[in-house]
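Box S1 | Example of a co-folding query
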Amino acid sequence: MYLPPTLTRLIELFSKLPSIGPRTAQRLAFHILMAPQEQAEQLSRAIIEARGRVRFCRTCNNITEDEICGICRDERRDRSIICVVEEPQDLLAIERSGGFKGVYHVLLGAISPLEGIGPDDLKMDGLLARLNGEEIKEVLIATNPNTEGETTSLYITKFLKPRGIRLTRLARGIPVGGDLESTDGATLTTAFEGRREIIIN
Ligand SMILES: [Zn+2]
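Box S1 (continued) | Returned holo structure for zinc ion
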């Protein structure tokens, strides 16, 4: 390869991004090279600023530039129902569907023995603190309908059941093995409306 080292490095870095293969990485790197200098600078500044400023909400772990996210600060949200999701992207998908008016708790992960992620790696402490300190009537578990999501749901259920709180799970309709992020709004809304009680023995 006769590529300049700086370009090789740019391609390498692009190829580390999710769903970017070597060819796409090369295409992106060349696009940046051919773009006006200002555009390239804007992009690099945006990356640094987003990475530097965005953090996790102290209450729910959603992404925010402030201490508390916009949803937690919104007085119109129903604080008696907490929807538990794996990642901030799941929260965004649910918000896009517009069918949920409660608040959230983001676990920032799902239990996956294969990837070495156990219950202790999930952000559960904050959820427990909220259950102790706030008037919560229902916890709606909206983890993904795949193996990791179901394992996580079962763990949360066992953990919270002794507290006598109403526990619900999203209705089917989201394809098994699929994820919330790529589910369309109408399907998500139906899944919320048809949520069911979790019954364990
Ligand atoms: Zn929040």
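Residues 57, 59-60, 62, 68-69, 71-72 surround zinc ion (CB under 6 Å). The chain has two domains: 5-53, 76-197.
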